[in-house]
């Protein structure tokens, strides 16, 4: 099974500053998808951003962007102009493009604190 | 659309009791999933279903059962609850698999405590 590693259990950032959350994954496949989910204190899992492995261009969604390094199997999330509402647990997730039940593999998460 | 709904939101069980966690989605998704999230940890897959009448085990299926009689509903049954099953349970659904993002949509979770 694929493994997803988030090596930073906790991170903090000053409001309006930029922070980068790390994610690495292990796979022998070349066709797959990567995701970042946000889990605020309400516990609701919210999709932040997604990336297809065959797309070289890094995905961006407003203040959120990724640095996808396929050869290094790295998928970091950059949050610019951090806001208090960004405080949450962030999970990186991987899924294969093979038709195998659409199983997602999640990392253990990074807890982000935003300091006013 | 309500998306993915779960009931109850909270529940306290005594050891040995049984209960069913309900999950319903109104997005006509074929795929549905049950995860558990222990404190400070990521999500672990319990069971999943690729369509009505078809279910399969995930990473941590012991102590649980599922059924999928309709596209919309995917209940999770706990038999003989144990303290190790204290966790937050999430239901999720997605349209398909293979090519295409097919991201999973999550319900709000059920916090279960077994005492």
Short description:
The complex is a heterodimer of chains A (116) and B (115). Chain A is mostly beta strands.
Report on this structure.
The complex is a heterodimer of chains A (116) and B (115). Chain A is mainly β and 116 residues long. In chain A, 0% of the residues lie in helices and 53% in strands. Chain A is globular, with a radius of gyration of 14 Å. The N and C termini of chain A lie far apart (40 Å). The model of chain A has no long low-confidence stretch (mean pLDDT 94). The radius of gyration of chain B is 13 Å and the shape is globular. Chain B has strands at residues 4-7, 10-13, 19-25, 31-37, 43-51, 54-57, 64-66, 76-78, 87-94, 105-106, 110-114. The N and C termini of chain B lie far apart (36 Å). In chain B, the strands form two sheets. In chain B, strands 2, 4, 5, 6, 9, 10 and 11 form a seven-stranded mixed beta sheet that branches. In chain B, strands 1-3-8-7 form a four-stranded antiparallel beta sheet, with no helix packed on it. In chain B, a hairpin with a 2-residue loop joins strand 5 and strand 6.
